[in-house]
Amino acid sequence: MAHRWVIVVACAIVIVSIVPLFMLVGKNFLPVDDQSQFELNVRAPEGYTLAATSALANGFLRTCASWPGVTDTLTTIGGGQQEQVNVASIYVKLQPIENRRVTQADLMLRARSEILAKYVKEYPGQLRTSVQQVAAISAAAFATLTFNTLSAVRTSTS
């Protein structure tokens, strides 16, 4: 009990150091890494037809497909359980990390600043947009699976 104040001061230093250490530590459930893929999502207003949503998604697609490092794109309209024709998702596949000069994060930022900002200005208050990494964990969807099983029949002769 002779060093009581040393313990109190040490505890105070530990408690005060929690805030700056918390700011330095990453807070994502999954680490942010360059997976060479991301997706753009857009939700148009209710009442948009499949053709109107397709035209909107093609505008997004044309812009990002011309960027360096982009190898493939895939547009899905009306996907998901609700099959809404006013919802589009554009999957963007990039070259492997060692073959491109820009990072995935840079291209995602470019998509936000160039594509989404342009369309949000053209359709003020009408579109919901996002750019995000492809989900590593997703909910299951209903699907019909067909399995063909082959059974080996063993016969023996006596």
Mean pLDDT: 79
Could you give the count of β-strands? 4
> Roughly what fraction of the amino acids lie in strands?
15-25%
CATH class designation of the domain at 37-132 = Alpha Beta
Helical percentage: 25-40%
Shape: elongated
Low-confidence stretches: 151-156
CATH topology (level 3) name of the domain at 37-132: Alpha-Beta Plaits
- What is the topology, as strand order, of the major beta sheet? 2-3-1-4
How large is the radius of gyration? 26 Å
Main beta-sheet annotation: 4 strands, antiparallel
The CATH level-2 architecture of the domain at 37-132 is identified as 2-Layer Sandwich
Q: What is the CA-CA span between the terminal residues?
A: 90 Å
Task: Please name the fourth-level CATH homologous superfamily of the domain at 37-132.
Answer: Multidrug efflux transporter AcrB pore domain
Supply the helix-strand structural class: alpha+beta
> How are helices and strands ordered from N to C?
HEHEEHE
**Total number of helices:** 3
Describe what you observe in this structure.
The chain is 35% helix and 18% strand. The chain has 158 residues and is of the alpha+beta class. It has a domain at 37-132: Alpha-Beta Plaits (2-Layer Sandwich). It has a 4-stranded antiparallel β-sheet, covered by helices on one side. The longest helix is centred in the first third of the chain and has 21 residues, at 4-24.
Concise account of the structure shown:
With 158 residues, the chain is an alpha+beta fold.
Task: State the main characteristics.
alpha+beta, Alpha-Beta Plaits, four-stranded antiparallel sheet, 3 helices, 4 strands, disordered C terminus
